[in-house]
């Protein structure tokens, strides 16, 4: 395993602006996963962005159950499509970090995540749509899995691991 970079191991700079990463779920299907990811967002004070269509009603009890009584504290934004999100937010390409089982950009441990990164995850059964992945192969990363017996990880577990890795240099 490669040695951590200086950026990943250095203490946060108290003079640096506060990290304000965003977690983007594109077409999530399982309300419990979205609720659990929302809870992680509350823990780290990150915005959760949902891209429709969703596989559930956002008011679904199972979303709130997974987010427990924290759901009311989620900084939540919703967009009707990927195009609406891109048009409204206009993120720079270097802010976009996409995550797939077979991400060609390398392991989630390789990039240095800027404080204004967008961490983008796809739906549980199909991953990210082609329109999102298009021309972004080098911006698509994966979580290493050592066992040949596992095809994928649960979205909420994978997202939480990635989010904490991305925030690592920004946490004290």
What does this molecule look like?
The protein has 172 residues and is α/β, with parallel strands linked by helices. The chain is built from six helices and six strands; from the N terminus they run αβαβαβαββαβα. 29% of the residues lie in helices and 15% in strands.
What's a concise summary of this model?
By secondary structure, the protein is α/β, with parallel strands linked by helices. It is built from six helices and six strands, in the order αβαβαβαββαβα.
Give the structural class. alpha/beta
Overall geometric form = globular
State mean pLDDT (0 to 100 scale): 89
Proportion of β residues? 5-15%
Instruction: Report the span from N to C terminus.
Output: 24 Å
Biggest sheet: strand arrangement: 3-2-1-5-4-6
Low-confidence stretches: none
Order of helices and strands: HEHEHEHEEHEH
Largest sheet: 6 strands, parallel
Can you tag this structure with a few keywords?
172 residues; globular; alpha/beta; six-stranded parallel sheet
What's the topology here?
Blueprint: H1 6-9, E1 22-26, H2 31-44, E2 47-51, H3 61-67, E3 75-79, H4 82-89, E4 96-99, E5 118-121, H5 130-133, E6 140-141, H6 155-167
Parallel strand pairs: 1-2, 1-5, 2-3, 4-5, 4-6
